[in-house]
Amino acid sequence: MRKRLLKAIPLVILTAMLGLAGCSSGSQNSDGTGAQGKQEAASTAGKKTDINIWLWDKTDSRAKMYEEFTKLHPEYNVVMTAVESKDMAQKLQTALASGADLPDIAWLEQTYRGKLLSLNIWEDLTKAPYNLDKSQVLDYLIPLETTESGVYVGPEAPSVAGMAYKRSLTKQYFGTDDRAELEKIFTDWDTFIQKGMEVKQKSNGKVFMFASLGDAYAFLKGQTSTPFIQGTTLNLKQGVSPLLDKLIQMKKAGIVDVLDTNSPAANASYTDETHIFYPCANWSVDFTIKANDKDGKGRWGFMIPPGGPFPLGGTVQAVPQKAKNKVGAAELIKFLFLSEKGSEVARDYKGNFSPFKPIYEKPDFYSKKEEYFAGQDVQKAIAQEVFPKIKSVRLPSKYDQDIDDSINVAMKTINASKDGNIDSAQLVKKMEEDLKNKQPDLKVQ
Q: pTM for this structure?
């Protein structure tokens, strides 16, 4: 080794001499930097490295969140590109096929997450050089953020839900608008249906418990973790049939209106006096209730629904293996989701909750009296009474979107039926046939 080192020394000296000769051929500055080097240094001074994100929320509040990150990391510039959640998988696959640039961060929304996680293109952020500590992430989220091969793609702002209600209507039909009293009344879904039938009778069929079957389904789906599919074998008889049976029961009882979920009519229902209950995720306060009921201050209440709280929505932020700035992307993700400052930013700008476990040890970190909810502290209720009760979740699958589409067709069939006179077994059989036609590799039990 010593002989090799001695032989290498002349080459090193020669290289250094050539370098000095090159510098002497141009004008020399007093600091020893050539004119060309000085110009290059000036051109790169203050230059920032982009972190490119494909997302569907380009609002000012989102931009301000990223500004808080760049204040701490001025070496980065965050660039947002709008991509609808339903288009994310196709856009990523097109970029991969064509050799086009991938984003540094891609948003993976719950509905399409299974398909996106099945793509073998994600960086494991727990590995070096990122070293994200997933032990700091809320436990129930980890399976939702991990691919089948065990790659942990990254955390998300957790989305959990309870039930919102119109105070005037609960007081009129149940004698109270107090959350605790309502929770004593609505102990399970059978009781809920029975009380709904009483409302129907008292209102001459003009007032409904839910605006749509889709709202009812959001509760029922989220409150069970029975898989709809196991590997490539459909499990609809065990996973879907009980949900459809309960929807049919609600339809027969006449307690659910016929509006289409998320339709203009359903959105307008937030302002009326004919629909009482709605799913209410932590993001629903700003993005659904306030957005649809602009004059609804004091109208609303929040409670734990029959069957308990449940997950609703959620978006993982993942880093592609072929991204240009993976380190910067990981730094942004860790700031937003695994730091106290990032948790504050998400809370204050978006009303989002954090997956960062230590935050929930601070009893007043989430606390905000909502004027739309007559001063009720919805944030504290969600942080202290909803999150602790989320125990298990349905794991994502690459077939989720097709299954959701098939369930939506089944719900439309129920909705269009006369008084719910329909057999859930026939609906499931039709779902199985449709899914096998779309995905020939699927099997039926």
A: 0.85
